[in-house]
Amino acid sequence: MAKTTQTRSAAKAPAGNVTPVKFIFDKSNYIWFIISIAVVALGFILMSGTTDIYSTTKIVIAPIVVLGGFGIGFYAILKKPDNK
User: Fold this and answer.
1) Residue 54 — very low, low, confident or very high, per pLDDT cuts 50/70/90?
2) CA atoms of 75 and 32, how far apart (whole Å)
3) Other Cβ atoms within 10 Å of 27 Cβ, number
4) What predicted TM-score, i.e. pTM, was given to this entire model?
5) How far apart are CA 76 and CA 8, in angstroms?
6) How many CA atoms lie within 13 A of 8 on its CB side?
7) 1-45, pLDDT tens digit by residue?
8) Other Cβ atoms closer than 10 A to 46
9) Phi/psi zone of residue 82: left (φ > 0), alpha (ψ -120 to 50 degrees), beta?
10) Which single residue of 18, 39, 42, 46 could bond 69 by disulfide (Cβ 3.0 to 4.6 Å)?
11) Domain segments of the chain: what residues?
12) Which residues, including other chains, have CB under 8 Å from residue 63's CB and lie 6 or more apart?
């Protein structure tokens, strides 16, 4: 059986070539995502409002607010981080 040998330099990267970890999302992505969560929560609060089942707020406005919150969430996920 043949043994494979590995040199120390190939197994361990030199300390001078350390690159910082780059995250997928930037701080602005997280801020937009928090805003989207707040907008969706506001939409659900509007949906649970009064006792009138056929209220315009419950049937029209609240679902639009929730969908807007989901749209902001998609934007937060798809937004490219700023290059600094």
Assistant:
1) confident
2) 8
3) 10
4) 0.70
5) 43
6) 1
7) 666 655 554 556 566 788 888 888 889 999 999 999 999 999 999
8) 17
9) beta
10) 39
11) 24-78
12) 43, 47
